[in-house]
Amino acid sequence: MNVLSKLKPSPKLKFLLPGLDILAILAWGALLFKSWVTGQLKLLIHPNYFLLVFVTSIFLIILGGVKTWLWIQSLRQKGNNGETVQHISIFPPGWGSCLLIIAAIAGLTIPPTIFDSQVALQRGVSDSLPITQRETQSFSVNIKPEERSLIDWIRTLNAYPEPDAYQGQKANVTGFVVHSPLLPDDYILLTRFIISCCAVDAYPVGLPVKLERDRSNYPPDTWLRIEGEMMTETLAIDTQTMQETPTQKRQLVLSANSITTIPTPDDPYGYSN
Amino acid sequence: MTQLHNAFTLFLSLLVEAFPFLLLGVSLSSALLLFIDEGKLIASLPKNPLLGAIAGSCIGFLFPVCECGNVPVARRFLMQGLPNSAAIGFLLAAPTINPIVIWSTWVAFRGQPEIVFYRILFSLIIAITIGCIFSVQKDPRPMLQPLLAQRITQLSRQPRFARSRKQEPNLKESMLLQSGTFLLGTGNGPMRLDEMSAATLTLTRDQPSVMGRRLKLFIENVTQELRELGGMLILGSAIAACLQVFVPREIVLSLGQGTISSILAMMLLAAIVSICSTVDAFFALSFASTFTTSSLLGFLVFGPMIDIKAIGLMLSIFQPRMIVYLFALAAQLTFILALFHSYFL
């Protein structure tokens, strides 16, 4: 049917192929289960799908178990294992399983990274949610300004972008440092990534923070907890789009009172609902 | 090095998100292949070309298979005498019009539900149009592989050749008079070798329909599809992750913002990466921030119909000429609809 399917596996390979399949299934079951148990899923996908991944891992492990049992049975009744059905195959025999096994082993051994300021700059950090993302949720007015997370602040700003409305409000937010080349030297962007489906669509949002001294004390990627007060400043760049504007524009910035360096949190990302 | 690690993280996140959907699609399609009686299904389809194309396209909803699974099914449909319009409608629409694909698209693009809607709508329009075009050709044989055409000729000589498998014993009796390669020792009689696809074997009714045996075949089918499609998924995800990390953003942006260039680029990408339709929405998601919505639609509509992998599979049914027609028609219609979307919707 297919040129590749004409490559007949040698008898020895034919004997090994079911074993490779079983290994691939079990390896994937183990990978999904491990990322669920260790909390690495937080770095990869939106929490809505954690359960789906967990159920899949259990199903795969059971499937692997049943396959192993069937294989052992067929090995016992030698010569009567003509049950295997030939599929229309795209890969030469064994390739699909090998790819699956290699990917699973890589996943089991290499932990996922947390995206850093480089990625944030590359993906275009700004203080607005991308227009392609879902619409801003409504917020209960009960949240006190100082209890809003960085992401809550961005959402609030998106819902009502008038800087003066927030003048003087207290804020207490955490995020990592991004040095934007467009901002003056006493400004950093306190940034977090938001995931709406999986890490592939993670997008950065950041709030400009005005420091009392030069930003070189806070190198990029340092995680900070910043307490301060919202104020308006006139800047030559539009923080909503992170592009230079021909005229100075009033922007909402956070003026930092106290800055604490914190370790990278376990759940560094925010999630869109 | 950091870049590489980032690419690996993206790769892993695509796989982890997509794997449950892949497994779900594979399990459901395996279960349905075992339990749905195609004969009855075919007999109940309308004969009118337009209605046939519509019905054929909609049967996809019953077969949650991606493009790799639907080619063998379409092949069986054609051999059992399903009208061209319905079979081609099914071939083109089934990978998109099915619950798993709709769900995974919705998961990926929850923020833009219109993508899910237009994906279904455009796929249906294209599948029905192409189905109707090919209904002009009443006899499917000139379109098909010589071997398959020969097979249909032989089948049509059987006066009582059935739309339902229940009458297959008639066929079996005359097997000895036919040329070809047969397998002995499967059930009650010889079996022709060119019918040998996994699903045909699993469906053959002469096998004792013991539950255990069915379960065994089910597991076998799930494993095989998982292996094949999982391999494709891994290659596709690797390409997506590398494109996102290593190709400079300016290039992607300049390509992705042009109305026409973005649609063409995404259609080309769809044809090349050959990613399974149950999970291609996650793949497309990695382009959501840089490419236009219309071009994403082009990717999501065109990819499931025609890609390199599907062409390989279709060669087992159609003449190369026929595949060129299908490819050209599907590409043009997708392009027109995506362009229509970018200007008017």
Automatic annotation (TrEMBL), chain B:
It comes from the Bacteria. It is found in: Cell membrane. The keyword Transmembrane applies. One of its GO terms (cellular component) is plasma membrane. InterPro entries: DUF318, UPF0718. It holds the Pfam family ArsP_1. Keywords: Cell membrane, Membrane, Transmembrane, Transmembrane helix. The chain crosses the membrane at residues 12-36, 48-65, 85-109, 116-136, 229-247, 254-275, 323-344. It is a multi-pass membrane protein. The keyword Protein biosynthesis does not apply. Belongs to the UPF0718 family. This is Permease.
